[in-house]
Structures are given as structure tokens and as C-alpha cells.
Amino acid sequence: MPKVLVIDDDEMVLALVQHILSLEGFETLTTADGPQGLTLYKERRPDIVLLDLALPGMNGLEVLRKIRQLNDHAKVIVVTGSGSDESAEVALRYGACDFVRKPVDYAEFVKRIRAALPP
């Protein structure tokens, strides 16, 4: 069962994504802030991270940078409601494997998650 860490400051988004991913057969870990997300990443070593850019405590780009320092091969999909083309470019430059704007189409989102996972 692939393990997904979701880091998003919107509790409703966390609950919805956790529900959808559990129906799709994923183990899902969630947190609403960047520092806790890093702690969970270190402790639980998820297969993929879904990361919002606007987070309390530490912004998403900083979280992404620190995850990539811990694991250069980490799979991180940035998911944000305030994303611009520039934000997408920066996230990809920092090592994100994909960039998704909210609101997301959940069927497409699950396909993109599965595509990013190792075979």
C-alpha cells in the first residue's frame, strides 16, 4: 500500500484528500503545518508527498527544499490554490515532480499520484 503524506493548512482539504486516497488504496498521513510535515516525513518515509505552498510555520517551498535535502529522490507534488506559472516553475526547480492547482479533479489527481510513484 503506497504511503502518501499530505501537508495542507486547510483541514477540510486534508479530510477530503485522506478519504479519497484511502478509497483508492493509499495509506494517508496528514498534517496542517510545514514543521510537522517534515517530522512526519523523517519518521514515516512516505512514498510521495502532496504539499501546499501556503503553510503556517514554514512555507511549502522551504518544506520542499528540506525534504529534497533529506532525500534527493523524494517524490513531491505541489498542490496549491494560489499557484501562478512562476510558482510552478520555482516548485519544479526546487525538485517537485508535478504541480497541481486547486480545485483539483480528483480522478485526474489520483492518476498523477500513481504516475509519480515508482513501479
Question: Could you describe the 3D structure shown?
Answer:
- This protein has 119 residues and is of the alpha/beta class.
- It has one domain: Rossmann fold.
- It has helices spanning 11-23, 34-44, 60-70, 85-93, 106-116, and strands at residues 3-7, 27-31, 48-51, 76-80, 98-101.
- The chain has a five-stranded parallel β-sheet, with helices on both faces.
- Strand 4 (76-80), helix 4 and strand 5 form a beta-alpha-beta unit.
- The protein is globular and about 30 Å long.
Secondary-structure topology with pairs:
Layout: E1 3-7, H1 11-23, E2 27-31, H2 34-44, E3 48-51, H3 60-70, E4 76-80, H4 85-93, E5 98-101, H5 106-116
Parallel strand pairs: 1-2, 1-3, 3-4, 4-5
In short:
The protein is 46% helix and 19% strand.
Distance between the termini: 12 Å
Helix content: 40-55%
Top CATH class: Alpha Beta
Low-confidence stretches: none
The overall pLDDT average reads 92
Order of strands across the widest beta sheet? 2-1-3-4-5
**Beta fraction:** 15-25%
CATH topology: Rossmann fold
Number of domains: 1
Main beta sheet: 5 strands, parallel
CATH-assigned homologous superfamily:
Response regulator
Going by CATH, the architecture would be: 3-Layer(aba) Sandwich
Indicate the overall shape: globular
- The strand count comes to 5
Q: What is the SS-derived class? A: alpha/beta
Query: N-to-C SSE series?
Result: EHEHEHEHEH
* Rg from Cα: 13 Å
Tally of separate helices: 5
